[in-house]
Amino acid sequence: MTHATEAAPPVKKGVIHDIGYARYAGERRAPSTLWRVIMRHQIAHAWKTWWRWKPAIIGAVITTVVCGVIMYVSSASRISGLTRAGGPLAFIDGTLAYSFGFYNKFAFLMTMTVGAAVVARDQETGAFAFYFSRPVRPRDYVIGKVAGMVVVMGTILLAGPLLLAAFRIGMAGDTKTMIDLLPWLGRALTVGVLASLAYATLPLALSALVGKRTISLAVWAAYYVMGTSLLSVVGMLTWKPLAAIDPANAVVSLAFGLWDIDMPGRDKNALVGVAPAAISLAAQSILAVGLLYNRVSRQAAGAVGASS
Amino acid sequence: MTTTTLTGWQATAALARLSLKRAARGKALWVTMALSLVPTLYAIAFRAADRVSPDRWEGAVMMTSLLLTVIPPILVASSIADEIDDKTSAYLWSRALPRWSIVLGKFLGLVPIAIAAPIVAVAISFAVLGSAAASVSDLERAVAGLALGTIAASAIAAMIATVMPRFAVAGAVCWLLLIDAPVGALDLNLHVITASFGARTVAGFGGEASLASALISLAVITAGGLAIAIRRMDRIE
Question: Which is the most buried residue in A221, A283, B55, B129, by most CB within 10 A?
């Protein structure tokens, strides 16, 4: 038995689907807002996969919860090895400043999974040619990348400490104590913002300088681990504020200094004062942004369409 | 027409030579050499300040041991991960090579460079600090510790490269720096699972830990890391 097959529609031969010139119908943005697109892309890129932002976020959340529990459970217990104004220091007052040492570790993790590879990846993949063939200026790229990384770092170095500061204020027994503790929010904000800036900009600058992902990650890790330790040693031998070039040391020193906490004993030499720590973090961030802008501008000059 | 097929060990040797040649022509070798000079600044700083003592020798060796957290990831992890991530391993698999020869070939080709870096650094530190800080036998122990530690750290880097090829360098550095080094410094039996503990103990700075336990620990870490790397490589599509 045979079935009649349906006739297939005739195929048009030699038809060219030329849509010709089509006017761009999408949203038109002012050049001054382009950095926001780059920032959003940077944040979205960091959020992708389980190996970039999420491990650091999980670590920071665990640190915040553990520190909060310690503040609540052991509020009256004394921290051995730490003093405040020469007297004993209770966990409730010392945990927040001490926690920056842990947040630093997760911030470093973020620099390794995202920060130190960002610009080098764009250089390796030739993304600059596409960025700068559009009306994106080097400053838009730099502001966008830096802002994106500061937001990402802020979730680690700022959000947790602010929550702990708020928790400490909430644990105050009376209104007067609560008001007295309000400066804690400002201190946490100061340390968190400066730390976020430094941890966001330094790896970005290094990434732009090196231009190859693998090497950039290794150089940043070597600088963070060995370079800063050496600077601390040189600082100890010659001029102590030199040790503030180490971002981790500067962040902890700033936190300890702002909360007037002292560490009598073996690690005391490593800590620097509030002013050198704050100046170091701010100056390194500014220098890093300058270096990043310089490198990106050079790339832009050599990108597609740069000569027109 | 007759064709010759390489045996597993011949393939391993060929891949080792290839990895060595690639490394010698790339940026990574120069970066490794530059990084190996960084820890020597520690010894130079103390020599310049005329504060040389046996404690400084320990400091110099510990500073040099930080190279173990950076150099194996740059050399070993990046080489294996690039092969997987860029899908160039498919070309190797299209030939009659056993997959384990890729891991072992790269490992054997690159580990000598990784070992050379800390050894050069610690030898320079020894020369700078002089006999007031350490004896020749101290130097020998430090060299042995750093060499064996580098082998174990390279095996860990190879394992991480096959587990997470896209984040191989970052993952290996973070593992060696944020997990291996702090756990190795703990005064708990748990420290035997780390390469840093073995390296430090063989180098003579392990406190009361026995040399035998350190050597066994390093051997197990190396064998385990390579076994996992080879198994992962076997399973990659």
Answer: A221
What is the spatial order of strands in the sheet that A87-90 belongs to?
A87-90, A78-84, A261-262
Q: Measured between beta carbons, which residues in chain A are less than 8 angstroms from residue B28? A: 214-215
The whole-number average pLDDT for the span A243-253 is 91
Query: In chain A, which ranges are E strands?
Result: 78-84, 87-90, 261-262
Could you identify the residue written with the tokens 């063989």? B202
Min Cα separation A114/chain B (Å): 9
Q: In the structure encoding, which two tokens stand for residue A143, read together?
A: 């502001």
In angstroms, the CA A51 to CA A122 distance is 19
Interatomic CA distance for residues B139 and B145, integer angstroms = 10
* Contact criterion met (CB < 8 Å) for B169 and A229: no
Report the distance separating Cα B77 and Cα B18, nearest Å.
16
Please check the confidence at residue A288 and state whether its pLDDT lies above 60: yes
pTM score of the predicted model: 0.86
Is A235 exposed, middle or buried (CB count within 10 Å of its CB: 0-12, 13-18, 19+)?
buried
Taking any CB pair shorter than 8 Å as contact, residues of chain B touching chain A are 27-28, 31, 35, 38-39, 41-42, 45-46, 49, 51, 59, 63, 66-67, 69-71, 73-74, 78, 164, 166-167, 169-171, 173-174, 177-178
Q: Which of B223, B35, B64 is nearest to B129 (CA)?
A: B64
Q: How far apart are CA A187 and CA A295, in angstroms?
A: 34
Per the CB < 8 A criterion, the answer to whether B203 and B215 are in contact is no
d(CA B150, CA B200): 11
ipTM of the prediction = 0.85
Distance between first and last Cα of chain A: 71
CA distance A213 to B173: 14
Decide if pLDDT at A307 tops 50: no
Neighbours of B132 (CB within 10 A): 11
| Tokens (6 digits) for B222 | 């190396």
Which pair of tokens denotes residue B201? 């103990």
With CA atoms as reference, report the closest residue to B132 among B47, B56, B52, B55.
B52
pLDDT in tens, A128-181: 877 877 778 889 999 999 999 999 999 999 999 999 999 999 988 889 999 999
Place of tokens 């600088």: A223
Q: Does A125 touch chain B (CB under 8 A)?
A: no
Token duo for residue A218? 């290794």
Per the CB < 8 Å rule, is A226 touching B28? no
Q: Which tokens in the block code for residue B221?
A: 């870490």
Judging contacts by C-beta atoms under 8 Å, the chain B residues touching residue A225 are 66, 69-70, 177
